[in-house]
Amino acid sequence: MTEPSEPLHHESRGSGRPILLIHGFGASTFTWRYLVEDLSKQYRTVAVDLRGFGKSPKPQQGGYAVMDQVRSVRDVIRKLTLNDLTIVGHSYGGLVALVLAMDLADFETVRLHSLVILCGAVYPLTLPRFIQLFQTPVAGHVSLGNISRKAQVRAVLESCVYDQSMVTDELVDQYTRPLEDKGAGTALAKVAAQLALPDFALSEEKKHYQKYNRITEPVQLIWGRHDQVVPLVTAYRLNDDLKDSRLDIIEQCGHIPQEEQPRETLRIMKSFFKRLAGRNSK
Known about the structure:
Layout: E1 10-13, E2 18-22, H1 33-39, E3 44-48, H2 66-80, E4 85-90, H3 92-104, E5 112-118, H4 129-132, H5 137-146, H6 149-160, H7 169-176, H8 184-195, E6 202-203, E7 206-207, E8 219-224, H9 232-241, E9 245-250, H10 257-260, H11 262-281
Parallel strand pairs: 2-3, 2-4, 4-5, 5-8, 8-9
Antiparallel strand pairs: 1-3, 6-7
Helix pairs in contact: 1-11, 2-3, 5-8, 6-7
């Protein structure tokens, strides 16, 4: 039995049509800082910390299934009355974003404008070693106990980027800090356990990834050419499964485009929004 849902931590900036940003496994709102700085000049950006991450609640008893995350994010959307909304999701957050889009289709009061998926972990895949370490609470705590948090975070970041020189001490510190919060280790273990299921995208006995063609809104896919976490073959499959999507691949980029290639990521997103504006004006 899960604990009662508590509100997610979120950070809102700017004004205009809203853009909701959902981070990936082990990350937080921090990962969107470059995008938010630019996008908030024209849009209202709302970055959320998912349950178990960043400054959001970290319930010890559970509540970390994909649909639990979706319901919590949906509560933020309702609270802030976000409409004509673009949802941006990275990696695990890409899965949450797609399932959220299907969930919102059942609520007439919320109009979805579009989606942007960055290196989305949206199908069952072989889990990278850094997630496997957290599959059980014991493994999660042992891994963090025997190896310094900073050393582990550095190793994870270096495995996720094309250019390892960008993994500076400051970057490692920023990604490490939320992992030192009370309950963070257990929360990571519980989310990792969900991802480790053979069919990790199960909800109410139905596989989410078999229903992506239900999404009718335009979707921009952004992938790093050298993504070793969620291989490029996933991008091609998702592009085929969606009704209205476009795939752009960033060269010399790994699994975290918003960190490694923020300018190119922004260029693609803005071009996407411009195309949609032109489509809607016809």
